[in-house]
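Write out this protein's structure.
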Amino acid sequence: MRPSRQAVPYRLGIFAPAFRFAIPALLVLSGCQKQETPSTQATQQTPVSTIRVTPATDGLLVQTSTAEFVLFPSGYLKASLAGKRAPSTLDDPATQPGQLLTVAHHPVSDFSLDLARAQVSEAQGKLGRAGKRIELHASSPSSALDETLLLEFYDDFPGLALMSASFRNTGQKDVSLDAVTLQRHRFNATQADAAAAHNQIRTFQGSSLKWGKDETFAMPAKFSQQNPFGAPVETKDGLGRVGGGIPVIAFWTAHIGEAVGHLETVPLVLSIPVETTSD
């Protein structure tokens, strides 16, 4: 047996209400931090995180100072802004699974996270001195794959969730893992404004596809774009190939916005596809 293992990072951020807050927050997260001197570290006490984590079988709830995140057994991570009345969100998960794997050209979506047994500890990352780290496990009977899912939240960035996952082959045969979709989201402007059309959302598409192509625009009723990152893209004209871009896709209304991005320090080849649907 030759186990197959694949680690795929993915990030979800929520911000409000203006888009200009999203890009600096996401970019700052991937930068370096100033190192404290030993004398400073000795005199400062380690702060206690105010983030609350409530495990449950139907949904793991994470509450920060400004946002709420609910992780469903299917892997869908719903993000909301905390408010005086009710949380505000663009997420409309319906019955859509949050994760989807492609194994030997066949979709696999039968992972179910064991939310009641979530392991909660203090975060150990470099984004702040206080936060929470959550480890969860799931398995797929159809593919013999086990998943370890990690979530991190930091008090200094209360509207940000960091997610990564690893997969292990527990069977006796090799597994051809073609692709991993770690977070699928279904956004609906009506969730934040009952009078709005479903697609009444503005968007930023950070991929570099063609010289002069708009990256910020109102979302059309019919739209589909793959948004590749980390690989050259054929322009099908005299310019040859393009690439690069900012690995962030954002959506916002006048009330709320959400951004999904890639925050690793290495340029992995990935895509964040976007498509409108009839419903």
